[in-house]
Amino acid sequence: MRAVDIIIKKRDHQELSKEEIDFFIQGMTSGDIPDYQSSAWAMAVLLNGMTDRETSDLTLAMAYSGEVLDLSPVAPLVVDKHSTGGVGDKVSLVVAPLVSACGLPVGKMSGRGLGFTGGTLDKLESIPGYRSNLSPDEFLAQLSSIGIVLTGQSANLAPADGILYALRDVTGTVPSTPLIAASVMSKKIAGGAHAFVLDVKTGWGAFMEKLDDARNLAELMVRIGEMVGRKVVAVISDMNQPLGQAVGNALELKEAIAILNNEGPEDLREHCLVIASHMLVLGKKAHTTSEARNILEATIENGAAIEKFKQLVRAQDGDVRYVEDVGLLPRAKYIETITAPVAGIVQEINAKRIGEEAVALGAGRAKKGDPVDHAVGFEIHTQVGDQVELGDKLFTIHANDYERLQRAKRNLLDIHIIQQAPRNPYSLFYGVIE
Ligand code: URA
After folding, report:
1. Which of 326, 360, 376 is the last residue in one of the domains?
2. CA 224 to CA 233: how far, in whole Å?
3. Closest CA to 358 of 332, 340, 325
4. 119 lines ligand 1 (CB under 6 A)
């Protein structure tokens, strides 16, 4: 078999066999297939698509390109969640300890920020000492002892995805439905969970800007789950505006801790409860999502959820005093609140542009491996559809550099579109696919 023939076949709209897909993914992982051929192949897939059968073969080939964890000896039923990425999306930080505190083990491998989207690990590492490089043995031991792990993805888990994702990022081949589906599902399968809740984002700040594209992706991932024997529920959620108020690592962590303490913004709490409800139903801890919601609310109110988060932080060598007193978390040099220059109704707060501004402040990376500034970011005080009066608080900037503060101020004012015109708020969710 030759890589070039497989590229030509996909270029010419033909369906690839399982053997061809396996050959290509193995060659890519071993380095026998060079980056330029992998990139050409990714572009052919982006342009010409894949059938469900090809996508599920690709998913399995990528999942088995490295180690596949078996969590069954540790816990008979482990449920994971995955978000396709967004701005202000700190849901994993809330949902993992919350669900674990309900008696359902959560072993989660998370990522770092990518492009304008934030990453769970960067947020957790705002806590001094927090270790996010657990080995597979440490992962299994901690899951067994305390029922929760939040760590980075081990290098040998779905390595083909790591290679392909890095190429897609620089060759314009990220927004391909089969490539995203295989990327997400291969990581989840290799991570060993038995069932997953997928949070598929749509809107300005999502890879799938259009609702129909997000729905197609969600449906495809649920079908792949069926084909590979995993239960998958996909929730389609809004990413036109940031989720919650905080954007930036320590600021988001603080907001997640507020939710675990039964405080914090209502939209974020609601989002977390919906995702966690589906996890409890998949994990057979509740029969219905409304029964699950009662259990989850009680687990927040009785303090068990925040206790589980502290247990996690201690287990991974983080300094738990930073959870008990969030005032200790990294704090920026300049903190400035900007008020509304006019009265009216908030028409748009483009999440992608907010994410880009957060990266420009230093909260994210220009390129892989760059350090992030945990202290910087924004608090966005209004949402689309809100009425604001002249002088009402609009947003607060946390910056460590005066020039960047000034730039953020100008750009965020520009991003907040306020007009004297009616505007419906965005829905939090657009559907559930089971
Ligand atoms: N998230 C992933 O894990 N992979 C993609 O391709 C896109 C979003």
Report:
1. 326
2. 11
3. 332
4. no
Position 368 scores a pLDDT of 66
Mean pLDDT by 10-residue block, N- to C-terminus, for the chain (434 residues)?
97 98 97 96 98 95 93 88 92 97 92 79 96 91 94 86 87 91 93 93 93 95 91 97 97 98 97 98 96 98 98 98 97 98 97 96 82 95 97 97 97 97 97 94
Q: Residue 10's domain spans which residues? A: 3-49
Residues annotated as catalytic are: 82, 161, 168, 183, 187
Determine whether the shortest distance from the Cβ of 207 to ligand 1 is under 6 A. yes
Distance 181 CA to ligand 1 centre (A): 7
Among protein residues, the one whose CA lies closest to atom 5 of ligand 1: 180
CA distance 355 to 352: 5
Single-letter amino acid code for the residue at 76? P
Q: Residue 411's domain is classified under what CATH number?
A: 3.90.1170.30
CATH number at residue 291: 3.40.1030.10
* Contact criterion met (CB below 8 Å) for 186 and 59: yes
Same domain, yes or no: 122 and 207? yes
Q: Which of 84, 87, 185 has most ligand 1 atoms within 8 Å of CB, for mutation?
A: 84
